[in-house]
From TrEMBL:
Name the record gives this protein: EF-hand domain-containing protein
Record's keyword annotation contains Ion transport: no
Keyword field: Calcium, Metal-binding
SUPFAM superfamilies: EF-hand
């Protein structure tokens, strides 16, 4: 599989300008984790490209219990998924799911909307 990076991204550079001694910088590691967890939960029904409602519920309950209030409430999951599912196909792509991550990070960081 050929991966094409925009000109401003060099996949061969490591975090040499900060004091982190690991191969990946913290933000790169966070992105790797988000992608990996999405694929793990999405792959439970055979397709790692989208999250079904049940996969989404499971991901939120397991990975975001302190960031999504009442995550065990089916109505909360329905409402949240509906707000993210742009094409109304009943599943979330990674880009649709990424909206949730942005909203949660924005709220957690205290940034204005």
């Amino acid at each position: 599989m050929l991966v094409v990076y925009p000109d401003y991204i060099n996949p061969n550079l490591f975090c040499i300008s900060c004091s982190i001694s690991s191969t990946l910088c913290a933000m790169e590691s966070a992105i790797n984790t988000l992608v990996s967890e999405f694929k793990t939960f999405a792959g439970k029904d055979g397709s790692s490209d989208t999250l079904s409602k049940e996969e989404f519920r499971s991901l939120v309950a397991c990975q975001l219990p302190n960031f999504v209030q009442n995550s065990s409430d089916p109505a909360v999951i329905d409402q949240l998924m509906g707000s993210l599912d742009e094409n109304n196909d009943g599943e979330l792509t990674f880009l649709e799911f990424w909206q949730l991550i942005g909203r949660l990070a924005n709220k957690h960081g205290g940034f204005s909307q």
